[in-house]
Amino acid sequence: MKARIALGVGLLLASLACQQQPSAPPAQKPPEKSRYFGGAPDGKLHVYFFDVGAGEAALIVTPRGNTVLVDSGPASAESHLVNRLPELLRRELDLVVLTQPDPKHHGALEAVLKRVGARRLMEPQLPDTSKAYDALLTAVGSRGVQILSPAPPSSAPKELVRLTLEDGVNLTVLWPRAPAEPLLKEAPDAEGRNAANSIMLRLTYADTSVVFAGGARGETEARLLERGLLSSATLLKVASPGVEGANSQAYLEELRPQAAVISGDDSLGKSPKVKELLARLRGVDSRAFRTDVNGEVHAVSDGKQFELSLQRPTPGEPGGTRRVFPGLDPRPALVRTAKPAPVVKPAPTEPPPAIRTEPARVVEAPRDSKARVSNVTDVDDLPVARKGTRTVEAPPKAVRSSSSASTSMTGNYMASKNKRIFHKSTCRSVRLIKDENLLTWSTRDAALKSGREPAGDCHP
After folding, report:
1. Which is nearest to 206 in space by CA: 285, 306, 298?
2. pLDDT tens for residues 63-82?
3. Is 357 a domain residue?
4. Is residue 108 helix, strand or coil?
5. Residue 214: inside a domain, yes or no?
6. Cα angle at 194 between 383 and 133, to 5 degrees?
7. Same structural domain, 302 and 399
8. How many other C-beta atoms can be found within 10 angstroms of the C-beta atom of residue 78?
């Protein structure tokens, strides 16, 4: 009997214990995986020259962590870049620069943007581009990426465009300079003309500097030498290594880089032109590094010097070698062998009509109160857009009221009062014109009589 009572009490206590246990908390959603794995900024400037085979791609990371991707490599580099870039980034790219409309420079762009994103894109706005390239830019614009031009601002057409990435770190556009200076047209085909007019950049941080030559050709170098726009650089990203006339003796003597980085695949070392280039680099006492030999090249600057680390050391290089290149060149003066080009200043041109009275605005980037992109962030300050960059059409805008009689109606053709071009009312660029600057016309003839020309993006 006692055993039965004990068993009953045990069952009762067990039942009560089960009833008193709190219910399990609701299952929590697993944390979303980060898209970016880069480390915190370390106060130094980093430049990564990626090994993308026969193509170009380099990443700039500033001391505070702002980022610029210079070219995105060929389509064959998609897999490598979509895995490598997240390892170096902490957020989406601040700026992408496509130096020229060559698939070797932009083939992996769509995959890169899908993986890491970007806020702005600068491209050279050249006339001889393929339908595929125009479609690429349209797709980029549809992602909400702001497309910028490298042209000098209309308020200061003779000045170089300088992008202040943050205090003390600047990216200057050396070429092209249209419409202030005409594009180079010596090449017999569109590919050559586009390369000659590719975006050429100079990155500076305190005493150190890097020149990104894009796809520069011999005529590009000659024009920059004539204009006196080149000066010594710590590092040079070599352009067109196997092209006749590129990387001339005079050009290399003017830049006299302490180190030069050459991108290419396994065929690079077999090219006679590349062998000649390597000899010219040795002649100006410049050390050459090649992605086909060394893999990825990582350059780090503290403002006083660059130190390079290589994915693979150069064959025959002693172990533990430090590759340090001071910003203030310690080498003895170079005895020039090439005749220096006479510096020719651009011929004076008629200034544009003085329509705008306020200075061009500088828009502060929201992520870093001291990081900004100057002179090219407002459509009223941008040069003529050509087809392919802004071709996504939108419904006509609603009627806008204005104190000006010319802007108090909805018209079929519209323009900014600060620009000498007009658009269709359905053009995407119209949506970016401020209300106070909007002009409208009901007919195309009326727009033409205003002295304006049809825009290159919507062809009104």
Report:
1. 306
2. 999 999 999 999 999 999 99
3. no
4. coil
5. yes
6. 75
7. no
8. 20
Q: Is the CB of residue 425 less than 8 Å from the CB of residue 413?
A: yes
Contact between residue 307 and residue 324 where contact means Cβ atoms under 8 Å apart: yes
pLDDT of residue 204: 98
Each as own residue / partner, the long-range contacts of residues 429-437 (CB below 8 Å, 24 or more positions apart, any chain) are: 429/379, 429/385, 429/390, 429/455, 429/457, 429/458, 430/397, 431/394, 431/397, 432/378, 432/379, 433/379, 433/380, 434/380, 435/400, 435/402, 435/407, 436/402, 437/380
| pTM, rounded to two decimals | 0.72
Nearest CA to 97 among 147, 26, 44?
A: 147
Tokens of 183: 């594009």
Go through 146-182 and write b for each residue having 16 or more CB atoms within 10 A of its CB, e for each that does not.
bbbbbbbbbbebeeebebbbbeebbbbbbbbbbebbe
Domain with 436 in it: 393-454
Strand pairing report for 287-290 and 259-262: parallel
Residue 84, CA distances (Å) to 22, 50, 59, 81, 202 in order: 47, 9, 11, 5, 24
Q: Which helix (H) or strand (E) covers residue 72, if one does?
A: strand 67-72
Report angle CA 313, 258, 246 to the nearest 5 degrees.
95
Q: What is the pLDDT of residues 307-340, one digit of tens each?
A: 999 999 999 999 889 999 999 999 888 888 876 6
The length of the chain is 460
Contact yes or no for 56/71 (Cβ under 8 A): yes
Q: For residue 405, report the phi and psi dihedrals to the nearest 5 degrees.
A: -65, -35
Residue 69 contacts residue 112 (beta carbons within 8 Å): yes
Q: Using the structure block, give the residue that is written with the tokens 């009572």.
A: 5
Q: What angle do CA 301, 302, 308 make, to 5 degrees?
A: 30
In-domain check, residue 232: yes
Closest CA to 342 of 220, 255, 223: 223
Distance of alpha carbon 121 from alpha carbon 126, whole angstroms? 15
Q: How far is CA 202 from CA 108, 127, 234, 245, 406, in A?
A: 24, 24, 11, 21, 44
Domain identity same for 146 and 244: yes
Q: In the structure encoding, which two tokens stand for residue 48, read together?
A: 């990564």
Backbone phi and psi for residue 448, each to the nearest 5 degrees, phi listed first? -65, -35
Residue 205 placed within a domain:
yes
